[in-house]
Amino acid sequence: MAEPNNKIDRRGFVADGIRVMGALGLGGVAGLLAARRGRPEHLVWQIDPDKCIACTNCQTYCVLDVSAAKSVQCFALCGYCDVCTGYFPTKDFVLETGVENQLCPTGAIRRKFIEEKGGERFFEYTIDESLCIGCGKCVAGCRLMNGSLYLQIRQDRCVHCNECAIAVACPTEAIRRVPADTPNLLSKAAAEAIQSQRRKRAQEGARGGLRRAQSSRLPAPVKQAAAGELPLAPMSQRAQERAEERAHDG
């Protein structure tokens, strides 16, 4: 009778060992997850555009020779103005791109003609960040119009000081720490403009899909005529209208 008891004891020993190892494994995983949760979040310095007054302190107080703060453009908010108050001074200038007519002291803003519509000219303004010194003059000027230009600290240039000299000098406390995985901040107006643009594109895409679906139900001559492959001669105007009505009715 001893042998069966020994077998049971060995089996019990193995089973107990497996349970212990499983418990240790689960404990290790739980400990690792707890350690990760307890790890402090990596934060970086950033400028809140809604608090920034473009006071020039970002240029003069940064510990770097050339400030890590750079002007950036929100194209969704930009009016593409011919007379841009972020590009031209508000007085004593000529509507030409000569250096003497530019607001930016380093010529960091690029002005590119886009189109002329309704007698008005429209231009795109982009920032050459290699030339931008973070003075904020363009930001202050742009606020007289749409306010699409604003300052942001570029993380690839920032040296991540424990105490940011610009933050200490900022009169409106516009500089604060934000998560490193989402380091950029938008103004409320810029965020709303981007969301509006996305909704508009989604609506246009939906309308385009509806038109394609309706076109797929039209008779071949109508589809070919729409594509410019043949004239509408094979169908009368009224026949074409009835075909389109049927397509719209589904």
Radius of gyration: 32 Å
List low-pLDDT spans.
Answer: 221-237
Structural class designation:
alpha+beta
Order of helices and strands: HEHEEEHEHEHHH
Multimerization status: single chain
Task: Write structural notes for this entry.
This protein is of the alpha+beta class and 250 residues long. The chain has 2 domains: 45-185, 2-Layer Sandwich (Alpha-Beta Plaits); 193-249, no CATH class. The chain has helices at residues 2-38, 57-61, 137-142, 165-169, 188-216, 220-226, 237-249; strands at 43-47, 69-73, 109-117, 120-127, 149-153, 175-179. The strands form 3 sheets. The chain has a two-stranded antiparallel sheet. A hairpin with a 2-residue loop joins strand 3 and strand 4 (120-127). The protein is flat, with a radius of gyration of 32 Å. 21% of the residues are buried. Mean pLDDT is 81; it is low at 221-237.
Give descriptors for this structure.
250 residues, alpha+beta, Alpha-Beta Plaits, 2 domains, two-stranded antiparallel ribbon, two-stranded antiparallel sheet, 7 helices, 15% strand
Please render the helix and strand layout as text:
Elements lengths: L1 H37 L4 E5 L9 H5 L7 E5 L35 E9 L2 E8 L9 H6 L6 E5 L11 H5 L5 E5 L8 H29 L3 H7 L10 H13 L1
Antiparallel strand pairs: 1-6, 2-5, 3-4
Give me a quick take on this structure.
41% of the residues lie in helices and 15% in strands. It is an alpha+beta fold. The termini are far apart.
